[in-house]
């Protein structure tokens, strides 16, 4: 069993960053400026711009993601988080592809790389279950997660009847992961029959089939009921404790506070702040980015909503309403 497989199957011991004191010490000297240098960056991104027509969805000058910890990417709706994920995982091309966009993962350049090559390099993102994946069993979803390993299409191999020893190992890994994520009993059920939380577990388990070095989770808690939230959070923390790097997008600020070692904030396509969760969430630029656009956003700490902030927000709301009324009248 490879070391990576051992991580996925949960049989390795904790790594040095399983210790919160070690993680805090690691990041203690890192500047809280956007684009700050990290002690050991696993992902480095430069000059990534994505325009849709006249609108710039992403404009990231520089970003480094630290190896071995959990980094949250937060920002209001439309900030560009998903587009950024798509760009760095090869599912979309930057508009700046020919004018200086480059990014590297684990020492390997990825700028001109396809999505499958990015996954093979060890940077894997979770995907929501699509209609066709819903119609497949849980186990078939897992086997599909191994697709691309050693450049093979396992499903084709299955249908061709070339099911060999190597594939048996992969099957064993799928069972290990299903056990770990409490989905073994569901292995023959259609993925579409799973609850919201179980789907999120399957998305994570499926991503782990390809032995990632870094896992990227897009809103891992969306649609998850409170009973499974704790379990999902525990799984994400365990992955980190076993040595995996985690980068995740999440709107729930309580979750972000609870599990993030580092938080990067995106607004209007740009990285606007970085730092430990508490520092970032008391940063006026972050409060502005959220509350300026979304007055009902819960930043996970009610004490941030001081009388002064509330007064400012209500003035902004009143000004916006007055402007809307004016626009209506002139129509
Ligand atoms: N294919 C596309 N064509 C045109 N505009 C797009 C496209 N994809 C994204 N956008 C726009 O780019 C901006 C960034 O969108 P994106 O989905 O990346 O934001 P986000 O931060 O992930 O938002 P949310 O938190 O709501 O998921 C938005 O204004 C969105 O409408």
Automatic annotation (TrEMBL):
Domain ABC transporter: 43-293
GO cellular component: a single term: plasma membrane
Region annotated Disordered, chain positions: 300-331
Keywords, sorted A to Z: ATP-binding, Nucleotide-binding, Transport
Superkingdom per UniProt: Bacteria
Residue ranges, compositional bias (Acidic residues): 300-314
Name of the protein: ABC transporter ATP-binding protein
